[in-house]
Batch of 3 targets.
Target 1
Amino acid sequence: MEILVCVKRVPDTSENEIVINSGGNDIERDDLVYSVNEWDNYAVEEAIQIVDKVGGSVTVVTVGDDESEEVLRREMAMGANNGILLTDDAFEGSDGKGIATILKGAVEKGNYDLILTGAQADAGAAQVGGMLAAMLDYPYASLVNLIEAGDGKLMIGREIEGGNQEMNEIELPCVLSIQTGINEPRYVGIRGIRKVASVEIPELGAADIGVDASAVGEAAAKVKRVDYFVPDTGEGAEMLTGSTEEIIDKLIEYLKAKGGLK
């Protein structure tokens, strides 16, 4: 099975103190520590595990600048076979639809049975996977936390409301957005990183993947970020104490007082 996994280089929230810039429309990005998007890491691990069972190869792809190459090499050190860097000045400032358009070009340039994305990557909007599937006219499922490969199809589990699990059969080729917790991503050691340090990673621009430069980038974006702010800190949680019955009574009274119950 040939699997393409879409990954993204993002600020590592565990290593950075996020500060809003002076313009209020972005975060301060100077000196930030970057890593691969957490959800994407689970998608790569799942792709590797599928290939280990049924054969094939895993290719990781990202849209970005030269610095984004580091996340491709990190995922190749993890076990992905190939990497593709989609980079072009025309891609700068693309919204979710623009990114999906760029990725569509990369998909159509290859021959993939399965495309995986993280459940969230595009500034938390969780939209690129669904948009990509729609553009390709492929079946799509989101929040996937279980995959069983079959003959020409997959059995997938999805996390839905109320903590329930939904099982579906989906035909290949398809696009799946992967939820965290589907697996345990493997540790990437120095030896693995050194092994892929000199591997050539192709860089493809708009013309290489058949994408009209005027259809992507900031000028074509229909969604533009206009503001960034840190929510005001609330007063904190109120802890209810007492027996179970007393806590229930207090909670009911509290909800009535706040208009939650009548």
Target 2
Amino acid sequence: MTPEELLAYDKEHLWHPYTSITLPLSVYAVESAAGVRLRLTDGRELIDGMASWWSVIHGYNHPLLTATLQEQAGRLSHVMFGGLTHEPAVQLARSLVDITPAGLDLVFFADSGSVAVEVAMKMAIQYYHGAGKPAKKQFLTIRSGYHGDVFHCMSVSDPVNGMHSLFTGVLPEYFFADKPQCAFADEWRDDDIVSFSELIERHHHELCAVILEPIVQGAGGMRFYHPEYLRRVRALCDQYDVLLIADEIATGFGRSGKLFACEHADVVPDILCLGKALTGGYMSLAAVLTKRIVGEMISKGDPGVFMHGPTFMANPLACAVAHASVQLLLESNWQEQIKAIEQKLEQGLAPCRDLATVKEVRVLGAIGVVEMREAVDMASIQPAFVEKGVWVRPFGRLVYVMPPYCMSTEDLQSLTGAICQVLAEEQQL
């Protein structure tokens, strides 16, 4: 197909995420990718500030990951995980148990981040069935969160910015505490935990779990909150016999400056969800880790097994490349890389604070956020970024980047410079 034919067929038949069929946004055809650059079919190259929705942490077409995938495909591309196992799954599980917070000893592989959250929520419900407390089947979370697009994930995502109004009467209705107000570097205030504390005290007899994104709230608002909030949540869960689910699908594997965001507060969840960067962006794969007591309680209750089993669970291709990606990260100077990216994002995005249309600029680890006062116009701002040679995909009022960890200083400067220029130009419209 010519580039023109490709785009024409796409426009007529393909439905892209979060888009309208009647008012389509611009779509750009990618021919190839390497390092931090996307090469379009028209010959243009774009510096990718999104790491393909935060997953391509080592850059595109990394020789080690590509070779690993090719080698595994020549031996075993897929086999059912029911009653069978294989080396890539065992190696990956061992790596994850070794590097995640102590006590998370059981690993359940899933297909995607959303499915991982569903698995975690089902684990919590089955845990209390096994414990002889079937009334404990509700969830508590915090506003401005995001946990995925399938139904139970939506039910614990922000009720205003999420999809609750569209699916009222279909989505389960759970409990939402006020979002944390103390920012990551603020001085802690005890009143920040009051809403959460009151809800868990009032409803603990019917709560099976608290679910939240530790420290960094991702697609629900790109907010960074105080580690003490997470410590208080952990203590309250312990006090009231409620499991804690940490959704680290966006923050896992170094993105926040710690290998896992829970480490900012020295907190160990009862259930941990991982995804996105797990395979370095090569394949769809997620993992749910939990404490052994959770597995034992589920196994001794009716029906005696955990009720979940995806067809492509622990796919050997995905597990092999994930294990290679994790080892690649651990063997790198990722802490120094993240620190350097953090400094360059802070420096590069700082001029945006002078724009009247900008509400706030915030940076944590390899995450840079420019929050606007009003929602951006995607129809105009996306082409403007492409014209500047960068790929940035805003949503709502947020213009943000989560670049690959291998991005050079020069490319980071080009990326942040383009953001400042485009926002300044958009302000004049």
Target 3
Amino acid sequence: MAIREESFRIGCGRYIQGKGYIARLHNEVARVGTRPLVIGDDTTVAITREKITASLQGAGIDFGIYTHNGTCNHEDAKILAEYAVKEGFDVIVGAGGGVIMDFAKLCAYYAALPVINIPTSSATCASYAPLSVCYTREGRTVGTHHYEYEVDAVIADTEILAAQPANLFLAGVFDALAKYVEIKHRYSEGDESYPMGLDYAYVMAKRSFSLLTEKAAGCLESMAKGEITEEFENVIFTVIAATGVISGIARGSNQTALAHKFYEMTRRLFPETARPYLHGEIVGVGLLLQNHYNGEEEANEYLLGLMKKYHMPCCAADVGVEMTDEVFEDYYARICDSSAIDKNDAAMCERFRKSLTYFWNIQRGENV
């Protein structure tokens, strides 16, 4: 099993979580620099501007705010990095969802500056993970950029996160659930031949799966009431920090598999029709494919039950995919040419074709 990263980038420099913790931004900035450039999109800047300003201005820290409404792409990141260095900013602060978290890390990389992330949603573990999922400016996936160093700090303000829309919360839950389902793509309990760290990633992913399936519904209820419960705090920690650790401790050893490859290919083949759907929503649909490949087709009855309970997409057509024979073959060829499948292994390719056929037929109601 190939290892992409030599180092175990297990955490971030500092992860702090709690109600109103955005007020501590000035302390985190002071640890790594003196003059931050805050990056967010229109929505997240509106959510955080007042609290960020109060924290930084109250501590006498000069700062700038830059609004970015595009994708996480290399071209815009290089432009903003050049601007940050030219204007004398020495810290990048990302405030937003997954795209902004990844974009802030990419800007910091090109500017050779530290980065602090403030997630306004828990839809992914992007604020924590030492990588950025990158796209073209038009929204097509172009690959993942891995960093040698971890994020310097993450401030998870649960007051902000409790106010996020339910679909963002659920997208994060399903993206985190994917770690356990996908790690079983190549992993079996009791086999000692796996790379160092993957056993721990598996155990953590299994624990996260159990906690999230038990607690997600209760968190939605507390969020609807405007309450921040211990249960909610635990789930947010699991979705952001624990899931980020799982990713880092596996060292890129293909712990993400078919569900994420389905996501990548969907963004690449259908960038416009898939645009409205969240990362975790598309990955969640891909888990139906992954379960079948893992030999656990029976698990899809439970998974589909969760999707329907939470009014989430339940099949490829629900996330903007055109379900034709030609598109089927395109997905098959592209995923066989990815790290998830060995295209030179005829048995593996045939197994994948059977799973993809099953997955395609879910659209027609023929399987589950």
